[in-house]
């Protein structure tokens, strides 16, 4: 069973009231509605990413939106580094682009369709 934490937060009326309305309409406890809302808006997870990449990817959180867009739009060339390096094996440049993309989406930016990304 996972550990749970109790957190006290103050919500502005424009956030609290819609959550309360959903809880009342569905007969769901407000706490469950808040938890579900938080789950749906979580920042990108590194749970399935090899640990050796976490620091560099988490560093992308410090970047501004323009820098993240530049990462996404950069074309990734094949590596000529030593054969079988960890970065090549895990395709780190693509992982970095995907994480930058996820951060921008989490920050509320509209995302282009795959067609727009591939054929710009």
Please characterize this protein's 3D structure.
This protein is an all-alpha fold. It has two domains: 1-42; 51-118, no CATH class. Helices cover 53% and strands 0% of the residues. It is built from seven helices and no strands. The protein has helices at residues 13-26, 30-40, 54-59, 65-73, 86-89, 92-106, 114-118. The chain is elongated. It starts with 12 loop residues before the first helix and ends with a helix.
Total domain units: 2
Distance between the termini: 47 Å
What proportion of the residues is helical, as a percent range?
40-55%
> How does the major sheet shape up?
none
Mass-distribution shape: elongated
Q: SS-based structural class?
A: mainly alpha
The total count of strands amounts to 0
Number of helices: 7
Beta-strand fraction estimate: under 5%
Order of helices and strands: HHHHHHH
Low-confidence sequence ranges: none
* Global Rg: 19 Å
Q: Give the overall average pLDDT.
A: 85
Spell out the key features of this protein.
single chain; 120 residues; mainly alpha; 7 helices; elongated
Short description:
With 120 residues, the chain is mainly α. The chain is built from seven helices and no strands.
Helix and strand topology:
Elements: H1 13-26, H2 30-40, H3 54-59, H4 65-73, H5 86-89, H6 92-106, H7 114-118
Helix pairs in contact: 1-2, 4-6
